[in-house]
Amino acid sequence: MLHLTPRLSAVAGLVRPCETVADIGTDHAYVPAFLLQTGVAQRAIAADIHEKPLENAKKTLERFGLLNRAELRLSDGLQGFRAGEAQAFVIAGMGGEQIAAMLHAASWLQAPEIQLVLQPMTHGEDVRRALRENGFSRVEERTVAEGSRLYLVLWARWTGEIQPVSPAYDYIGALCPQARETDRLFLRRTAARLQKKADALRGKDPTAAKKLDSILQEVYDACR
């Protein structure tokens, strides 16, 4: 059985059973290989923008005897996909801005039969905002520690509902800091990042700094 790192284990753990999973930016195809091994998915599409990661993915799938249940695909993000090819899409290890851009561009993801599992390396607020603006109102979130790093992982499904939220929602999301220590630590680091940004804005744009201060207070309150 393939052994995953804590980050990738958290990603794989949020995928619900499906016929086909697509892993975007697959690198070594560890997540789709694990999902095939455990029966969560019956087939997998391992996609990447570069040939070398696909070569690595092929080696992983061959090593575990899974190549006959997988497809290797050269694709720039979601551009090489169309509706109906997979029921689950994993996008992990990319920046939040990049993931958000994919969500805005691929309107065909807006279908109730599709689940998304997203793991931004930075700027989770951009991903939350893109999900919210595009009607993905069913969202679950987890944080996971790996070494000194903390990672955010989100599961989402489209409903078409765009719900009103506070300005701080994109920074807090569906985390449960009262129940999970990693969530609390993650929000504290988010608050520290926002504090630094607000301080830098004070002399340049007091209005923007004041808006950030309001958001920051909500994030601090959520950490308590």
Automatic annotation (TrEMBL):
Per the record, the domain of life is: Bacteria
Q: Which keywords accompany this UniProt record?
A: Methyltransferase, Transferase
Protein name (Swiss-Prot/TrEMBL): SAM-dependent methyltransferase
Record carries keyword Methyltransferase: yes
**UniProt cross-references to Pfam families, sorted A to Z:** Methyltransf_18
Q: What's one GO MF term for it?
A: tRNA (adenine(22)-N1)-methyltransferase activity
For this protein, the record's Gene3D superfamilies field holds: Vaccinia Virus protein VP39 (3.40.50.150)
Species whose genome carries this gene: Candidatus Fimenecus excrementigallinarum
Example GO biological process: methylation
